[in-house]
Amino acid sequence: MDTGTYGYPKQGVKKIDPSYDVPEGVDIRGRYDEEFAKILTKDALKFVAELQREFRSHIRYALECRKEAKRRYNEGALPGFNPATRYIREGEWVCAPVPPAVADRKVEITGPVERKMVINALNSGAKVFMENLMRGQVNLKDAVAGTITFNDKARNKVYKLNDQTAKLFVRPRGWHLPEAHIFIDGEPATGCLVDFGLYFYHNHAPFRQTQGAGFGPFFYLPKMEHSREAKIWNNVFERAEKMAGIERGSIRATVLIETLHAVFQMNEILHELRDHSVGLNSDRWDYIFSYVKTFQAHPDRLLPDRVLVGMTQHFMKSYSDLLIRTCHRRGVHAMGGMAAQIPIRDDPAANEAALELVRKDKLREVKAGHDGTWAAHPGLIPACVEVFNNNMGNAPNQIKDAKRDDAASITEEDLLQIPRGVRTMDGLRLNTRVGIQYVAAWLTGSGSVPLYNLMEDAATAEISRVQNWQWIKYGVELDGDGLGVRVSKELFSRVVEEEMARIESEVGKDKFKKGMYKEACKIFKRQCPAPTLDDFLTLDAYNYIVIQHPKGPAKL
């Protein structure tokens, strides 16, 4: 989950003492309760401000480079390997050894930082729990300390941690997302520096004792497009280690290879982070989104229905195989992707069918050489663990055993091959229905939402949005039941109306009325036929949830 909000509560806001002390140049604008004072301390905010001031010019430059790359691709250029860094790709170097505490990462679970969900995820039997944070920062602090509990009065049940729990990996936001509730020197702070800075400041010492065995904290780094961005993260880590007085290389991170640009930079990214890396992850859904967005001006590279774009498509298999070879050659983990299925409690036959799909996907990953995988729900953990244990035995990973030298021949053409398949009216409808429902959930604070027996997140909603945009822009002719029909703004508008009626029927009138489906529909209906494709859906949606207090004597 990439959070674009601190999740300030909408009710029960307490007036804060105007004398609350914050560092010079820092303004906090937003609703929160007294618990946040545990996190928004003067020293923690000072550390965040120091990171912002030291690295903001580098971040701005990296984001400008992204714009320049986008301009080139929109003018017809294709991504590819950089000839200037060939020496890095062909060099014989390795990353720092993987810390013993995270040598075994066979199954990782991802989820929100809501209090009960954190406890359930850490207790799930997975090796790693990965996620992001304001209310979440409080929960993560208590989780690292081992004191997190949750009293579910409705069920008369108290949730607490088991003796053995998953290792905690925290995912900050991407470089592109601002934190509109924290201003530093008159401008919004960079979201990921806020996420990282607050979490690291409060948790580096207890984490190293309770989870890292002398290493840590551990992170997942999302939305990276170039090794220059990895270099910024490496410098941030070194700055944090120096502040904390801990050894260089203590902080460790896994980079999500979820953009088409990054697949051509995997060696370079690992090289920049070689003292702090524990691997790369093949985040397939964001990667598909990036493929469409990168080729938004290429009508010859339109994707088929999103349900047809799986890991057996040549460009996806090539991406996964090259990631495995790259990681193992450099001595770090090659993590597999998300099992998006969720348990179907009221239909045993459908539930078993869903679990079988998970088993097949995980078997493909472990046979290919992945060291571990992701699951979206605790109910999938046993099936994932079984597959990896049956094929890996007692080995913690496959770094030394699955070198994948056969993947050395993968070319730019393999990574860019146009996917095959049909484009249908059902695909257009599913995109619309899933996109609107996800945005509605996001606007109410949920970064992931179960829909049609799958866990949908921002990435799958983004695929829905950008694919609709591309089909409308180029007037795609549909196959199947819509044979001969071309996608247009008028057709899309009619589909939106019909799918909104279906959503209301499926969720019920009361939930539909209380939810933010109409607001979500406005956002989705505006973005899909827009003349210019917005880079991220959540940047637009973020404006709907930002609540700021006016500046004045009280900074908090």
From TrEMBL:
Enzyme class: transferase
Active site (record annotation): R171 (proton acceptor), D457 (proton donor)
Any GO molecular function: malate synthase activity
Keyword terms, alphabetized: Glyoxylate bypass, Glyoxysome, Peroxisome, Transferase, Tricarboxylic acid cycle
EC code(s) of this entry: 2.3.3.9
Gene Ontology cellular component annotations, sorted alphabetically: glyoxysome
Compartmental location: Glyoxysome
Classification via InterPro entries: Malate_synth_C_sf (IPR044856), Malate_synth_sf (IPR011076), Malate_synthA (IPR006252), Malate_synthase_TIM (IPR001465), MS_C (IPR048355), MS_N (IPR048356), MS_N_TIM-barrel_dom (IPR046363)
Domain Malate synthase N-terminal: 24-86
GO annotation (BP), single: tricarboxylic acid cycle
Domain of life where this protein originates: Eukaryota
Residues in Malate synthase TIM barrel domain copies: 167-418
Family stated for the protein in its record: Belongs to the malate synthase family.
NCBIfam families in the cross-refs: malate_syn_A (TIGR01344)
Name of the protein in question: Malate synthase, glyoxysomal
